[in-house]
From TrEMBL, chains A, B, C, D:
InterPro entries: Csp_YhjQ (IPR005560), YHJQ-like (IPR044543). PANTHER family: CYTOPLASMIC PROTEIN (PTHR37310:SF1), CYTOPLASMIC PROTEIN-RELATED (PTHR37310). Transmembrane segments: none annotated. This is Four-helix bundle copper-binding protein. It comes from Geodermatophilus obscurus (strain ATCC 25078 / DSM 43160 / JCM 3152 / CCUG 61914 / KCC A-0152 / KCTC 9177 / NBRC 13315 / NRRL B-3577 / G-20). Coiled coil: none annotated.
Length: 135, 135, 135, 135
């Protein structure tokens, strides 16, 4: 069991009816994607053709920040606010969609973009599934 | 002129038709609110009646993270994505609304909550004005 | 292979003689600890005896922020600066030591503190090993 | 009075003998520098000669993250830990030194680097003064 799942198991109060497995999966996907996008921005920065990767770097930086914040918000359960959770998840799905599309466009040239695009897709799906489960 | 405004003035490319003054005001409000919410969460944590401030602390922590990320996203202009900007601003306005309401409820008892509620209101307004100006 | 390791494998330039396995382990430990500390602060906040967990919450919040930043700095390799890497790793080891000690003191009462203390220990060790390998 | 100063004034417990004015100045310098470095990384990314600004972008990103975390740690006073504060301030001074030097090297070519170098110098000095005052 991951640490994120263990932390959910040991939360001392009610999780407010949220789907625990989808929540754990989304938290993990957010942190994975935050790391991947931070690394991909830096890998792009070291590419010879960096001038063609400007938008990719920018989108990676945004996506890293949004995923980071989303992973933090989802790691808190005290005084749960469905409205805010939903708005943050929508922003995260949008950031992952934008970054996944951008990285996918460079995936054939750059392996780091291919790996990062997949991390973005996983995170986008995890956000979408969690949004749907909020009812 | 603030540093945030100076950085906008010296950005070497086009800002993409965004309202420069509203953008600068929103960036500054985001960083101010991120600091204020971080400090208010900690001040609440030191109050004797901390057990009645649990939701306030949690909302402060979320708002700090969302404002921080929003301030960063708004500080970038390369490869501007209106969709993502809007989604992030909506999440920020929601976080500031939730935190402003929560802090306002404790404003008569705790000066730090009163000051923080005002920072949240300013940031919420700045986000809303910027969203409206995006057209 | 984790995404962090895959991103290291596909970095297009030289990693500057850093130990790749220790680097990957440290990046992963930082993100795991950032999540764990964020969740532990929130779990403490929901405990009935929250007034006895003030220092634990504060230390968790600091440790989450420092681990987050350290994980980001370590995910970048372009223009590597050994001095800065070392200073950031020292701060991270100090934060993990403080938080691991604090959480360990509540581990018998609170399972989330026990799990979080272990994440802090792992991250502290990973930072220390990476510092030693920098030569 | 800035919001950061107001939050310090209304903190409900003892600040632990720390110099309040130096603390407020350092918190403000950290948030200002975090914003400035985020914006400078993005401005560099839009420069025609981006391939000569790789190290500058990377150092800006690191400095933004370290300043952000330092500003947050300094905004908390509950359960104050001088050791951790000092380690974080040392990392921040190192990041600001590295980024200030790097940006200064491009200051004649790029106004955003000149402005950002000044923000880094101010933050480095503020960290150094606060470290010295910790005794």
């Amino acid at each position: 069991m991951t640490v994120a799942s263990q932390m959910l198991e040991t939360y001392p109060a009610d999780l407010g009816g949220i789907d625990r497995q989808k929540l754990a999966a989304c938290i993990e996907a957010c942190f994975e994607c935050a790391q991947s996008c931070t690394a991909c921005a830096d890998a792009c920065l070291s590419e010879e053709m960096v001038d063609q990767l400007r938008t990719c770097i920018r989108t990676n930086l945004d996506c890293a920040d949004v995923c980071d914040t989303t992973g933090r918000v989802l790691s808190r359960h005290t005084g749960y606010d469905a409205n805010l959770t939903r708005a943050v998840l929508e922003a995260c799905a949008a950031a992952c969609k934008a970054c996944g599309d951008e990285c996918a466009g460079h995936a054939e040239m750059h392996e780091h973009c291919r790996i990062c695009a997949e991390a973005c897709r996983r995170c986008q799906s995890a956000c979408r599934e969690l949004i749907d489960s909020l009812g």
